[in-house]
Amino acid sequence: MADLFPERLASDLNTLRQHFPSQVDVPPDRQFLGFDAYKKAMDCLKPGDIAIFATPPAFRWVHFTYAIQKGLNVFMEKPLAADGPTSKRMFRLAQDASAKNLKVGVGLMSRHSRAMQELADRVHNGEIGEIVLQRGYRMHGPGGSFLSLPKPAGITDLLYQVKRFHSFIWASGGCFDDFYIHLIDQLGWMKNEWPVKAQALGGRHYKLSPDGVAYVDQNFDIYSVEYTYSDGSKFFFDGRCMNGCEEIYTSCLHGTKGMGIASKSGDCGLPSSLYKSQMATPADLIWESKVIPDEKDPYQNEWNDLIDAILDDKPYNEVKRGVEASLVSSMGRMAANTGREITFDQMLQCEHEMAPGIEKFTMDSPAPLLADGAGRYPAPQPGIVTTREY
């Protein structure tokens, strides 16, 4: 196991030992700390073993590069990249992994929801006609490290930003990429293509903590994105991180012959369903998913599917699709952060690499974001800074 923070390593290891007491064997000489700890952990494995990447996504391409060199299969969490240069790098690494017959899973578990798999088949076979509109909502209170106060004493800017990675675009794509990618991925799947452009709104209503201290993260409280597909059809996405507001967390699709619900609640909430009208009423229900108990958990399914591919030596590489889903997420985020329409190609070709030299980071390295005298980090300024996000 590898981490930057000893308390996190100890906590995670303790959790694993509690859940899997007979399967966890990580003695002190296989516990590693630091920015180069990933190499030491992977050096404990032999070719064909599996490395799991659950770090902030900024480090994904660095760790994936080494895993390919070592001949390791990989499971990596989403998102896979937050900017154009690292997306291109991940596309190339995906090809390198396939060339070595490595199996790579990506933590977009919607694709392993048995309900959504059947929903996609039915939608692609025309059961609700041509898709003309999609809607996605993830609106709830602040979660993860969405909000951050000024860096306290006793920790460097770099470690603070890594520790609170949801707050900083370079580390995670911000809350937009990390929180919203699942609904974006599943609705692109249902449409069977990716949006080609986005225009968006974003705003920060609550800039101070209850104690009157200014937050320093780079997130907006609210996002509203209009994605457009190549045929002109629209996908509207709304995200909100505010307490006390209406909570909606679902994904829907509308066709010329009816509508569907992909996730009833949450990222993969059962059941998925189809209706013969534009109203999700019991009278208009034409199909509702039924999943056997052993396959109801998409998180377990995605792991089982990866292991099956390794044991049966079947082609298995989800990285290209994972990078594309990350790019579409970033396209919506950049549209909100700049106030400009952003195309898929513009997002991919944007030259702003947010964490250059990350593969050489040490515990003493400067952070990709530097604070001003008041401890504030650069933030998006829509309409003012328009060719990059900050």
CATH class of the largest domain: Alpha Beta
Helix-residue proportion: 25-40%
| Mean pLDDT reading | 97
Radius of gyration: 21 Å
CATH topology of the largest domain: Dihydrodipicolinate Reductase, domain 2
What separation lies between the terminal Cα atoms? 34 Å
* Number of DSSP-assigned strands: 14
Category from helices, strands and their pairing: alpha/beta
- Given the C-alpha coordinates, what overall shape results? globular
Written account of the structure:
The protein is α/β, with parallel strands linked by helices and 390 residues long. The protein has two domains: 2-109 and 303-317, Rossmann fold (3-Layer(aba) Sandwich), CATH 3.40.50.720; 110-294 and 325-360, Dihydrodipicolinate Reductase, domain 2 (2-Layer Sandwich), CATH 3.30.360. 33% of the residues lie in helices and 18% in strands. It has eleven helices and 14 strands. It has helices at residues 6-19, 37-42, 60-70, 84-99, 114-124, 157-163, 169-172, 174-191, 298-312, 319-338, 344-349; strands at residues 2-3, 32-33, 50-53, 73-76, 104-106, 131-140, 197-203, 222-228, 234-241, 248-255, 258-263, 273-275, 285-288, 342-343. Strand 3 (50-53), helix 3 and strand 4 form a beta-alpha-beta unit. The two termini are 34 Å apart.
